[in-house]
Amino acid sequence: MDNNSMIKLVQSCIPPLDGNSHKGQAGRIGVIGGSMEYTGAPFFAGISALKVGADLVHIFCTSPAATVIKSYSPDLIVHPLLDQPNAVNEISPWLDRLHAIVVGPGLGRETKTFEIVSELIKTIKRRNIPLIVDADALFLITHNLELIKDFQSPVILTPNKAEFERLCDKLNGQSGLNKLGKNIIVLKKGSTDEVYCAISNAQWKSNVGGSGRRCGGQGDILSGSIAIFLHWTLSNVDKLNLTYSMDKTIIAASLSCFAASLLVRTCNEEAFKIKGRSMLATDMIEYIHTSFQELYGQ
Fold first, then answer.
1. Do 297 and 59 form a contact (C-beta atoms < 8 A)?
2. Annotated binding site
3. Which residues participate in the annotated binding site for ATP?
4. What is the rounded CA–CA span in Å between residue 288 and residue 44?
5. Predicted model pTM
6. Most buried among 42, 146, 154, 277, using CB within 10 Å?
7. Where is each YjeF C-terminal domain found (predicted)?
8. d(CA 105, CA 126)
């Protein structure tokens, strides 16, 4: 399927701003991440989801990160629960409210945090909530692939080049990606973004837009954007009008990756025109609205 056809499918899934929906209907997104050292990553993921069109974003982070993240934006709902003694029990009731969850931005690699996140992923699996796995959560998953085994809801892994190579090494080669599971999609980030999954018709490559600037935070913007597009495509899966027989859920997940990739790469391109070598992730966020309108017309 060519880019124009995929863009039209994305457009068919975007909820109209016609005044007929209530708060939360356009998307309630969760971000699990944020530690003492890393507070920017969960902010970038959360604020990007909001600016793309989510109504509410909840960030579940450690206590030292909470006040800092709150200071970045009053629009984010921040829960300092990830390092609490009963973290899993305190976070779990919130999960059922969410349409998609991003795990990993700013997570860090503390053993205790990984133990808590592992239990949360198991809970997310039982509740069939779509999941996006990024950053340090990819490190966790790569060393414990059982965590994403038998997911009935879509799971999107978003590795960069180094993370992709570690994952392939764990799977004894790139061909092993197809064995991750039918609902697992891998979006490899780079100069060309590329999707791998068990269904060949859902795979694609894109090098549209972008620039040579590789500042931190771009992957977090991508993961937050994927989360809200994933909610929209899954909610409108019957509108896709696909002419071939295949799992529409996987097509919807792949389409969300395409939509977010194209948007973020366009933001990168536009911000780079103005800022050049000085461009930061915060500069890219400022172009979400205009890039969205340019691509999707809403």
1. no
2. 106, 160-166, 189-193, 210-220
3. 189-193, 210-219
4. 12
5. 0.97
6. 42
7. 6-295
8. 22
